[in-house]
Amino acid sequence: MSESSPLPGFSTEFLKISSPEPHVALVEILQCWTGLSKVFDNISREPTVRVVVLASALPRLFSAGIDLSALGGLADGLSDEPARRALQLRDQVLSFQSCITSIERCPYPVIVAAHGIAYGLSIDIMAACDVRYAASNTVFSIKEVDVGLAADIGTLARLPKIAGNHSLLHEFAYSARDFSAAEAEKLGLVSRVVQGGRDEVLTAALQTARTIATKSPIAVLGTKHLLLHARDHTVQENLDYTATWNGVMLQTADMQQLIKSMKTKTKPTFAPLGKLPFKL
User: Fold this and answer.
1) CA pair distance 166, 241, nearest whole angstrom
2) Does any domain span residue 257?
3) I want to staple 252 with a disulfide (CB 3.0 to 4.6 A). Which of 53, 180, 186, 218 is the partner?
4) Domain edge (last residue) among 175, 198, 213
5) Strand 131-135 and strand 110-114: pairing?
6) Which domain, by its residues, includes 208?
7) Can you give the pTM of this predicted structure?
8) Does some domain include residue 122?
């Protein structure tokens, strides 16, 4: 891997943010995941970034899931009245969901590199990413039923739209059993299993990020945006929306730059995107 350079002001106490390649942001989870929302929302406004890699900085695990003591204390200090208590708990869940959705909300492609233990919350995080790699030593589990709840931060919402094997998905979700990286690939959760551990899978993710970062940022951003739209709409709705989207985006100078580079056999250069809106 290349030597990383920091992205000033982006790191937090629990999340390390650096730029190991031009236009690539590397987000490494040191301990706590709840700061992901602020970090990804900040990255979403950074015009020098074109692709993001998400990994754990810990050598033996991606995430062991939610802290059980924290889970047991979720209701502390809430109202004794059932309706108000339910509303307060709902607000907590929505806050957690928004934190994970910030990954999907990011306009740039996010590549996740999982390794080691990847339980519970790990699946929520990975399902919100665009490209998912796993080291061969990764052990997964949709763990929530073992602590008495249905997964509520994204796994059950996104995995049915990701998985190619729904029978296997249901088995994993109901049983909470461990499953291997090979089974995760069979499920469709990951597209690539990399032999080794953290360093090997992170290297593979950064290689893919490097390739994506050389492409037209307008084309890549639009592709992610339209893929997510297609997931949540009918084919005709997406075709109509794409026609409107590209009615504007086909006017990009990036196309002329690419045509010029093909003719001259030179490497294209693209202008920065500039400050983006909070949400496209």
Assistant:
1) 29
2) yes
3) 218
4) 213
5) parallel
6) 5-213
7) 0.91
8) yes
Q: Which of 55, 56, 50, 103 lies closest to 211, judged by CA?
A: 50
- Residues written for the chain: 280
Structurally, the chain folds into a number of domains equal to 2
3-state helix, strand, coil in the chain (%, to 5): 45, 15, 35
CA–CA gap between residue 152 and residue 96 (Å, rounded): 9
The whole-angstrom separation of Cα 165 and Cα 188 is: 7
**Which helix (H) or strand (E) is 28 found in, with range?**
strand 24-29
Specify if 275 maps to a domain. Answer: no
- Residues 244-258 as b/e (b if ≥16 CB within 10 A, e otherwise) read ebeeebeebebeeeb
Exposed (0-12), middle (13-18) or buried (19+): which is 32, by Cβ within 10 Å? middle
| Amino acid present at 200 | E
Amino acid identity at 231: R
Question: Mean pLDDT over residues 106-133, rounded?
Answer: 97
The strand ranges marked E within 71-196 are 110-114, 117-119, 131-135, 139-141, 179-180, 192-194
User: Quick one: 131 and 195 in the same domain?
Assistant: yes
Higher pLDDT, 132 or 5: 132
* The Cα angle at residue 136 between residues 133 and 137, in degrees rounded to 5: 115
Cβ burial, residue 266 (10 Å; 0-12/13-18/19+): exposed
Mean pLDDT of the chain: 91
The pLDDT of residue 223 is above 90: yes
Structure tokens at 132: 């998912």
Element (H, E) at 247: helix 235-249
